[in-house]
Specification:
Layout (H helix, E strand, L loop, with lengths): L1 H20 L5 E16 L8 E13 L4 E13 L6 H4 L12 E14 L3 E12 L17 E12 L4 E10 L13 E12 L1
């Protein structure tokens, strides 16, 4: 929690400092965003279908010119998945069949490169996600099954709309194996996010 407060303080300080130095080609914008987060976890242990979740967060746009900028964000995202019939064959040590499919809560920090004009932007960049509920029991024996962090790559589009509104769509692919049980099956997250934002 202390690290989260420190990160928010740094973002606010950077915003205020950059606003004081902004020129006609360099703008700074702070806003809130939220929307649908369709997620799945790849691997033989899970069904190959997306599940509907949500994502809420804040963004900071630092525009260095009319066509180039960066956009760091701080997002709370839910990721869920449905186990497949292969799960018990691969992980029989979990005992009885799973009744509750995993719901994972992440604090995600993407840092995106914005390319485009004032209205339409293409976004791409890395993202690191911290698992927030790693101490909770995901299965009946309470065994922790997922790693505490997930490194991914984001790509998508961003639209600046009238009335301080934004719309966005992006695809996020996990690059590392989040299976913390063994090496029998590689689990990698995938997300499709669609939502709206409000510039403050």
């Amino acid at each position: 929690m202390k690290k989260l407060i420190l990160l928010l303080s740094v973002l606010v300080t950077a915003t205020l400092g950059a606003k004081g130095q902004a020129s006609d080609y360099s703008t700074v914008e702070l806003g809130l965003k939220g929307g649908a987060n369709m997620t799945k976890i790849g691997g033989e242990s899970f069904n190959d279908a997306y599940r509907l979740n949500y994502s809420l967060g804040a963004f900071l746009q630092l525009n260095f010119s009319k066509s180039v900028g960066i956009q760091p964000e701080l997002n709370f995202s839910q990721v869920s998945a449905t186990t497949s019939s292969n799960f018990n064959a691969l992980y029989g040590d979990f005992g009885p069949a799973i009744t509750n499919n995993p719901h994972l809560n992440y604090m995600s920090i993407p840092v995106l490169l914005n390319l485009g004009g004032r209205v339409f932007k293409i976004q791409v960049g890395p993202q690191y996600s911290i698992l927030m509920n790693s101490g909770q029991s995901l299965w009946t024996n309470g065994k922790q099954a997922f790693t505490n962090g997930d490194f991914g790559l984001d790509g998508g589009i961003w639209l600046d709309l009238p009335f301080h509104l934004n719309a966005f769509a992006r695809y996020i692919i996990g690059l590392n194996n989040i299976n913390d049980v063994d090496n029998q099956d590689s689990w990698k997250s995938q997300q499709i996010q669609i939502g709206v934002g409000l510039r403050l």
